[in-house]
UniProtKB/TrEMBL annotation:
<dbReference type="InterPro" id="IPR005958">
    <property type="entry name" value="TyrNic_aminoTrfase"/>
</dbReference>
<dbReference type="Pfam" id="PF00155">
    <property type="entry name" value="Aminotran_1_2"/>
</dbReference>
<dbReference type="InterPro" id="IPR015422">
    <property type="entry name" value="PyrdxlP-dep_Trfase_small"/>
</dbReference>
<feature type="domain" description="Aminotransferase class I/classII large">
    <location>
        <begin position="15"/>
        <end position="366"/>
    </location>
</feature>
<dbReference type="InterPro" id="IPR015424">
    <property type="entry name" value="PyrdxlP-dep_Trfase"/>
</dbReference>
<feature type="modified residue" description="N6-(pyridoxal phosphate)lysine">
    <location>
        <position position="222"/>
    </location>
</feature>
<dbReference type="GO" id="GO:0006572">
    <property type="term" value="P:L-tyrosine catabolic process"/>
</dbReference>
<dbReference type="InterPro" id="IPR004839">
    <property type="entry name" value="Aminotransferase_I/II_large"/>
</dbReference>
<protein>
    <recommendedName>
        <fullName>Aminotransferase class I/classII large domain-containing protein</fullName>
    </recommendedName>
</protein>
<dbReference type="GO" id="GO:0004838">
    <property type="term" value="F:L-tyrosine-2-oxoglutarate transaminase activity"/>
</dbReference>
<keyword id="KW-0663">Pyridoxal phosphate</keyword>
<dbReference type="InterPro" id="IPR015421">
    <property type="entry name" value="PyrdxlP-dep_Trfase_major"/>
</dbReference>
<dbReference type="GO" id="GO:0030170">
    <property type="term" value="F:pyridoxal phosphate binding"/>
</dbReference>
<comment type="similarity">
    <text>Belongs to the class-I pyridoxal-phosphate-dependent aminotransferase family.</text>
</comment>
């Protein structure tokens, strides 16, 4: 809808800051080590066959070792299930939980794929609030009020898409304790794991698996800048064996038996990707993002009709509130984004898409000159629509 609203004869380039695909910008390219790993896997001819439905053993083993570095215990390859990106991981987990009468707790704002898949599987959704004034922390009182005997799980996205927040250890532990009290498992979406640009370090939710069972979802898409390679995972963090006793593990295996698998050569490349990517690559990406995030935050602060509750600390996007009383001829967030696209060839995501009306989600995984251009156009747009005193 936004693309269709662009002005055809606008000579300026369209600046797309509405989705989390950094590969659209030249500075966000994957490491040479990842490319060489994929080439080596192809040339080896060892990965031309069908893969096991749960994934190639050496890839599962490598991911278990990679994720174990964030934990106080060791994962095994049997804890790891490979998927076609994190999207398929979401699909599988929702399918497993979609029993008659069940419901799931999703964050508001959140990633819309969960709600879309839950609707497809006829799994009831209940939204709990994230509090912008508290760094988008989970409102745990609202979680307890929403849950009942039919609640299966709570989804936690950290680092947060769409909010750009990174939760502290203490808050994550409180979430785990609340989930245990309610008798539900935690689905930890960590697709942006380690993409942290603020002061809060990334803490894996699996660290609290002794309190509550955790299904961790992740991928190489964002940290390695390869969303099109479609390599994700589901990991069972379950030292107490609850996911086995309740049949969750068996159901995951059964679902994988009737779904498609990630390309086998990409799976074959995973051990080399994880082993040979040097820290300089990650630091460079984070430095680009940090500079962009700081510029975006300061630029938004200088526009009266917009409010950014906090400087982004992680992931690749941030939520910005539209102060509608300060604007003329702008009805809501969708109208704001449609008019911005038409008048300035800049595309943001309306907040209603991620569950928060009259906000917008802005991606800051972009090159600084491009971001400067986009925010300059945004300022002009807001001045044009500002209410006259």
């Amino acid at each position: 809808m936004l693309w269709k609203n662009l002005t055809p004869n606008d000579q300026r380039p369209t600046i797309m800051l509405g989705r989390g695909d950094p590969t659209e910008f030249p500075s966000f390219q994957t490491t040479t080590a990842a490319v060489e790993a994929a080439v080596d896997a192809l040339r080896s001819s060892n990965f031309n066959s069908y893969s096991p439905t749960v994934g190639v053993p050496q890839a599962r083993r490598a991911i278990a070792e990679y994720l174990s570095s964030d934990l106080s215990y060791k994962l095994s390859e049997d804890d790891v299930y490979l998927t076609s990106g994190c999207t398929q991981a979401i699909e599988l987990v929702i399918s497993v939980l979609a029993q008659p009468g069940a419901n799931i707790l999703l964050p508001r704002p959140g990633y819309p794929q969960y709600e879309a898949r839950a609707a497809y599987e006829k799994l009831q959704v209940r939204h709990f609030d994230l509090v912008p004034e508290k760094g988008w922390e989970v409102d745990l009182d609202s979680v307890e009020a929403l849950a009942d005997d039919n609640t299966a799980a709570i989804v936690i996205i950290n680092p947060s898409n769409p909010c750009g927040s990174v939760y502290k250890y203490k808050h994550l532990k409180k979430i785990a304790e609340t989930a245990r009290k309610l008798g539900i498992l935690v689905i930890a979406d960590e697709v942006y794991g380690h993409l942290v640009i603020g002061s809060n370090p990334f803490v894996a939710m699996g660290e609290f698996a002794s309190i509550v069972p955790v299904l961790t979802l992740g991928s190489i898409s964002k940290r390695w800048i390869v969303p099109g390679w479609r390599l994700g995972w589901i990991v069972t963090n379950d030292p107490n064996g609850i996911l086995i006793k309740t049949g969750i593990v068996e159901s995951i295996n059964n679902c994988l038996n009737i779904t498609s698998d990630p390309a086998t050569f990409v799976q074959g490349a995973v051990p080399q990707i994880l082993e040979k990517t040097n820290n300089e690559f990650f630091l460079n990406i984070k430095n680009i993002m940090r500079e962009a995030a700081e510029f975006l935050y300061e630029a938004i602060e200088a526009i009266p009709c917009l409010t950014c509750p906090q400087k982004p600390e992680g992931s690749m996007a941030v939520m910005v509130k539209i102060n509608l009383p300060l604007l003329e001829n702008v009805v809501d967030d969708v109208d704001f984004c449609l008019k911005l696209a038409k008048e300035e060839s800049v595309i943001f995501l309306p907040g209603v898409v991620v569950g928060l009306k009259n906000w917008v989600r802005i991606t800051f995984a972009a090159e600084l000159p491009c971001l400067e251009d986009a925010l300059g156009r945004l300022k002009v747009f807001c001045q044009r629509h500002a209410k006259k005193p």
